[in-house]
Amino acid sequence: SHPVRVSAQLHPYGEGRLLLLSRDITALEQADAMRRDFVANVSHEIRTPLTVLAGFVETLQTLPLPDGERLRYLGLMAQQATRMHHLVQDLLTLSRLEGSPLPDMHEWTAVAPLLARCEQEARALSQALHGDTGAVAQQIVFPAAEVLRSAGQLAGSPGELHSALANLINNAVRYTPAGGRIEVQWQPLAGGGARLAVIDSGPGIAPEHLPRITERFYRVDRSRSRDTGGTGLGLAIVKHVLQRHGAQLAISSVLGRGSVFAVEFSPGGVRAQPVLPLL
Ligand code: ADP
């Protein structure tokens, strides 16, 4: 797909002859540039909280602060440590995804408890972000019980699937302001397969950002991402997991109105679950 560039070397080859050795170096150079970018990004992401932490340590060491102030500083330091912890966790998740064999598609996870867990986590996150600010709570809506009862099962790694769906749902909670609405829909598709949509009434994403939104460390608004505990790796993890499971991610968004992150599971990735008769 790209114009081929070659590195060529001339080697003496027998009497009066030269051998031309060539290979395509574009792909190699690209991979190398990406690796360099990634290392630079990771270093930056680690350096920032470290600088903040070191600053607080110095303040505590040099200024005699009243107890209340000291505790406030320690709280802020704990926040930075947590941030670095999340960053390292996400980095490990990504590197595991890259290094491990494809998920076993003979392993099945029931959708209902998976979404129940996501719902619990989303409500806890919403509470943590808005609960004690006195702001109007977010409205969080999950599929009705009867939809979930017939939702069936997903093929693949339960842990990976949870991390992908939870990332999308938690992003909706994190980026939607207080008083907003987050809805998760589950829809079986006509030819088999299913669609899970995470719909929010948040800030939306401008069209020029959409193509890059799943890249590592790509953020539309750096400070908003940080304030809500973002590492900039969430959607990269989501994309990777879904790819490994043969599922597609479709994002549509209207600036100022909200976003829809939709996951389409292929027919092979979903199986119906016999509805147990109520005794
Ligand atoms: P982060 O940790 O920064 O949230 P992600 O990879 O999860 O990293 O998301 C990348 C960027 O995409 C975010 O920084 C944010 O700008 C944007 N984004 C993701 N989800 C949403 C959403 N539901 N609404 C608006 N913007 C979003």
Automatic annotation (TrEMBL):
A molecular function (GO) held by this record is: protein histidine kinase activity
Q: Which reaction does it catalyse?
A: ATP + protein L-histidine = ADP + protein N-phospho-L-histidine
- What is the species listed in this Swiss-Prot or TrEMBL entry? Ottowia pentelensis
User: Which residue numbers delimit the Histidine kinase domain?
Assistant: 41-269
As for subcellular location, the record says:
Cell membrane
Q: What class of enzyme is it?
A: transferase
The Enzyme Commission number assigned here is 2.7.13.3
The protein depicted here goes by the name Phosphate regulon sensor protein PhoR
Q: Which UniProt keywords apply?
A: ATP-binding, Cell membrane, Kinase, Membrane, Nucleotide-binding, Phosphate transport, Phosphoprotein, Transferase, Transmembrane, Transmembrane helix, Transport, Two-component regulatory system
Give the coiled coil ranges.
none
Function text: Member of the two-component regulatory system PhoR/PhoB involved in the phosphate regulon genes expression. PhoR may function as a membrane-associated protein kinase that phosphorylates PhoB in response to environmental signals.
Coarsely, its chief localization is membrane
The superkingdom of the source organism is Bacteria
